[in-house]
Write a structure and sequence with these properties.
With about 270 residues, the chain is α+β, with helices and mostly antiparallel strands. The chain is about 25% helix and about 30% strand. It contains four helices and 17 strands. The strands form five sheets. A five-stranded antiparallel sheet has the order 1-2-3-4-5. The protein has a five-stranded antiparallel sheet with strand order 6-7-8-10-9, covered by helices on one side. The protein is globular and about 60 Å long.
Length: about 270
């Protein structure tokens, strides 16, 4: 097997960076489109994406502990380590590969370590895709958290910091909502989850993007049209302001985004 090699598109951008065997992609590698956007990071075998079979070491503990638009989540135990893991079975193979790519990207960013859910691997069984992830034991969704206002302020600060951390690393979540924010009410740890619709932005500021996964009541843009990275970040921010305002003040009513930001700045730092 050769060392790390690179191939290029006709326009000069990187097409593939990774290992090869007999001039075929084989081993670990990254594939990019003509705009320089990462399409897939993972294993290859004989020039095709290789997804290993679901390991026998994972034993099913409880079915359907969570459900989303892309699939269902069950609880498994790693019989070699005795650790619990969350396993998501996807309705569409492409959705599973895309979410794994995004989580792997986050996991590789050292600055994001321990801020977002960890991915342990992607596997296949009976022609379906399974993503093995960290199990957030004792965590509940933001909508289920019952704490005092002082604790709600701390949680709001952590949520804001994590969204800002994503944006600082040119990642937009695009599907922020209470169900995608997990909180441990005992130690107030916060994790953003469900990165199936997240977009890793290109360095090209003129590039346009389409929403890949979203909740219509939690976006401020037309999902049928393309948008700039700057617009997608603004969308994330506006939705975050609404989520934080409703959670902090325990209300369903919201003023304008400008008023929400002005009010929230009295309680949390938005620098």
């Amino acid at each position: 097997m050769s060392g790390i090699v690179q191939t290029y598109h006709a326009n000069g951008t990187i097409k593939y960076r990774g290992q090869k065997l007999n001039d075929k992609r084989h081993g670990f590698g990254e594939e990019y489109n003509e705009n320089g956007d990462l399409k897939y990071r993972g294993l290859w075998k004989r020039d095709r994406i290789y997804i290993p079979r679901f390991p026998k070491k994972y034993k099913l503990i409880q079915k359907n502990i969570g459900k989303g638009g892309q699939g269902t989540i069950s609880l498994y135990k790693d019989t070699k380590t005795n650790e619990l893991v969350a396993v998501k079975k996807y309705k569409r193979q492409k959705s599973g590969i895309y979410q794994y790519r995004n989580l792997e990207h986050l996991n590789h960013l050292k600055i994001c370590k321990d801020c977002f859910i960890q991915a342990f691997g992607i596997f296949q069984k009976d022609d379906q895709i399974y993503l093995v992830m960290e199990y957030l034991n004792d965590f509940v969704t933001l909508g289920e958290v019952e704490v005092f206002k002082a604790e709600r302020k701390l949680i709001c600060q952590k949520i804001w910091n994590q969204v800002k951390l994503l944006h600082d690393n040119n990642i937009v979540h695009c599907d922020l909502k209470r169900d995608n924010i997990m909180v441990n009410p005992h130690n107030l740890k916060v994790h953003l989850i469900d990165f199936g619709g997240a977009i890793i932005l290109s360095e090209n500021p003129t590039k346009k993007y389409y929403f890949k996964s979203f909740t219509r009541s939690y976006i401020t843009l037309d999902p049928e049209k393309s948008h700039s990275g700057k617009s997608l970040k603004k969308n994330d921010v506006k939705i975050t302001l609404k989520i934080l305002y409703q959670f902090l003040f325990q209300t369903k009513k919201c003023p304008s985004y400008e008023k929400m930001k002005e009010t929230l700045q009295e309680f949390i730092s938005m620098e």
